[in-house]
Amino acid sequence: MSSHSLAAEHYLPRTVDGELDELFTGAAAISLEGAKGVGKSATAAERATRTFLMEDPAVREAVAAAPELLRGTGPVLIDEWQHLPMTWDVVRRAVDAGAAPGQFLLTGSASSFSPGSHSGAGRILKVRMRPLSLAERGLGSPTVSLAAILTGTQPDVSGETSVGLPEYVEEICGSGFPGIRGLPHRVRRAQLRGYVDRVVDRDMVEAGLRVRKEAALRRWMAAYAAATSSVASYEKIRDAATPGEGNKPARSTTEPYRNVLERLFILDPLPAWQPTQSHLRQLAAAPKHHLADPALATTLLGLGPASLLHGDQGPVPRPQDGSLLGALFESLVTLGVRTYAQRAEASVGHLRTHRGDHEVDLIVERDDGRVVAIETKVATTVSQDDTVHLRWLRDRLGDDLLDAVVVTSGRYAYRRPEDGVAVVPAALLGP
Asked: Treating both helix axes as pointing N-terminal to C-terminal, what angle do 294-301 and 165-174 enclose, rounded to 10 degrees?
C-alpha cells in the first residue's frame, strides 16, 4: 500500500529542490504539479517517509475506505492524487485542523478538480515542476546566474562552453524527461511517440474529454507544435491542421483540445507581459505557444536532429514566419528561464506590441515590477540588429530595466562594450 519504491537510487538534483525545502519549513501541504514524466514523484519521494501510489487500484480502494491512512507521521506523499480526488479534500481538512509544517506532499499531472473539490487556496501550496532545464541536464557548469542578473547590479558575465548547435539540437529532440532522455536513440524516439499516444488515447479521456476523432486531435497537436514560440491565432493553428479542407472544425471542437491539454500541462503557453508600471502602451495580450518540452514538438512533427539541422520545417506549415529550429531553440531556452525564474520568485512573460514592430522573447519580472529582458538567437554571434528591441525597451523603461541579455548557441559569455547587453550561451545560463 505504501512504500519507498519511488525513491531513486541516484537522485538527480533539481532546481525546485531548494524551493520545496524552503516552503516546507512553514507549509503543511504542497502540491507538486507538472506534466507526466518530469520527475515529480522522484523529487517528492526524496522528502517522504510514507508513499501512497494512487495509480494503484488497490491503494485507491484502501484509502477511499479508510482516509485516515493518510494521516499520521509525515511527510506523506500522495502520488498522482487526481486518481482519487477525495484525497485533496482529506489533506485540506487536515491542514485546517492544524497539521504541522512538512506533513503532506501531493503530486499531480492534471490541474482539474472534481466538482466537489475545494481549490485548496491558502491551504495547499502549488509548485510547478517542468522538464529538465539545460543546467539540470549536466551539459556543463553554468557561469551566469539569472538570480544574480535579477539583482540589477550588472554582474560579471563570463565563461566558455564547448556546447554548440549540434548539441542543442540533440537536446531539443532528446527531451528533458529524466526517464527518457538517457535512453538509446531509437528507444528514446519510441518512448516519446508512446508519450504522445498516451496523451491522446488515455490521458485526455481520464481528464474528462471524449475524443471522437483521434486523428483530428493529433493533427491539431502537430499544428500547435509547428506554431511553437509564435503568437499565431488558434484559427491559424486550426487551418494549419486542416490544409485544403473547406469544412473547418468549429471552435467548439478545437477549444476543448487546448483546455484539456493545458490542464494536463502538455501545453505550457507563455503569457504576454502586462507591466505593473505604466511605461508602455499598446501591448498585445496573446500568449506564446509552447509545449511542455520541445521534444514533444519534434515528435509530433516527425523531425529529428538531422532534419532540423538541414532546415526541414516538417509536414505542417508554420503559421508564422521564421525558422522552426530558431523557434525550438527559443522554447528550450524558455523552459530553462521559467525554471530559474521560479526559483528566484520571479515571473516570466513575453513582450509584443500590437503592430508587432517590437518583440522581446522573454521578460523576467521581479515582485517590484523591475525586469530583465531576454532575447534568444540560435546563431553564435550577436549583431547590432539583434539588440535593437532590447535597446528600444531600455529607452522606455529606464532604470526599471535591470539588465538585457541575448542567449545564443555560441561559445563565450561576455558583455557587449557598445551597449552593455549580456551575451550568454544557453549552456552557461543557470539559476
From this structure: 80
| Buried-state track 369-399, b at ≥16 Cβ within 10 A, e below 16 | ebbbbbbbbbeeebeeebbebbbebbeebee
Domain ranges within the chain, ordered by starting residue: 16-128, 135-430
The CATH superfamily of 16-128 is P-loop containing nucleotide triphosphate hydrolases (3.40.50.300)
Nearest to 431 by CA among 13, 15, 11: 15
**pLDDT for residue 116:** 46
Q: What is the pLDDT of residue 362?
A: 98
Q: pLDDT tens-digit profile of 204-238?
A: 998 888 888 899 899 999 999 999 999 999 899 98
* DSSP bridge partners of 359: 352
What is the pTM for the complete model shown? 0.94
Q: Which amino acid is at 63?
A: V
Rounded to the nearest 10°, the torsion over CA 391, 396, 397, 402 is 10
Contact of 220 with 260, CB cutoff 8 Å: no
Phi, then psi, of 257 in degrees rounded to 5: -55, -55
Phi–psi pair at 276, nearest 5 degrees: -75, -25
Q: What is the DSSP string of 189-254?
A: HHHHHHHHHHIIIIIHHHTT---S-HHHHHHHHHHHHHTTTS---HHHHHHHHSTT-SSPPPHHHH
Of 290, 395, 348, residue with least CA distance to 150: 348
The set of residues, in sequence order, having a beta carbon less than 8 Å from that of 321 and lying 6+ positions away, is none
Q: If DSSP codes are grouped into helix, strand and coil, which group holds residue 31?
A: strand
